[in-house]
Amino acid sequence: MTTDDARTLIDDVLREIAPGMDDPAGLAADADIRDALELDSLDFLNFVEALSKRTGRRIDEDDYPELATPGGTAAYLTGQEAGRG
Fold first, then answer.
1. Cα angle 39, 45, 48; round to 5
2. Does the pLDDT of residue 58 top 90, yes or no?
3. Distance CA 12, CA 18 (A)
4. What angle in degrees, to the nearest 10, is found between the helix axes of 3-17 and 70-79?
5. CA-to-CA distance for 57 and 70, rounded, in angstroms?
6. Domain of 53?
7. In terms of pTM, does the model score above 0.85?
8. Rounded Cα gap, residues 55 and 40, in angstroms
9. For 18-55, what is each residue's pLDDT tens digit?
10. What is the rounded CA–CA span in Å between residue 50 and residue 67?
């Protein structure tokens, strides 16, 4: 998975869990996803679960802080692809 592929996946998932959001691609790579989209804990969990389901990878709770921003999430997904976990 490339960084662009990861970002497309992230944007698609954000559209699903925050349907009122016009353009997730407009989020800066370092924007806090929860703050920017006013997501509560359940929304964030839905985000993580959707990423896990679409990638076929388990995402442990200890890794959730790495998913706080679009850039961090993309790095996590591409790093895992390279044999991280």
1. 110
2. yes
3. 10
4. 130
5. 18
6. 3-20+28-84
7. yes
8. 23
9. 877 777 878 899 999 999 988 999 999 999 999 999 99
10. 13
Reported as a pLDDT band with limits 50, 70 and 90, residue 85 is very low
The enclosing domain of 13 has a CATH number of 1.10.1200.10
Q: What 3-state class would DSSP assign to 39?
A: coil
Count how many domains the chain has.
1
5 vs 83: which has the higher pLDDT: 5
Closest CA to 24 of 12, 35, 32: 12
Query: Six-digit token pair at 79?
Result: 């790093």
Cα(54)–Cα(42) distance, integer angstroms: 18
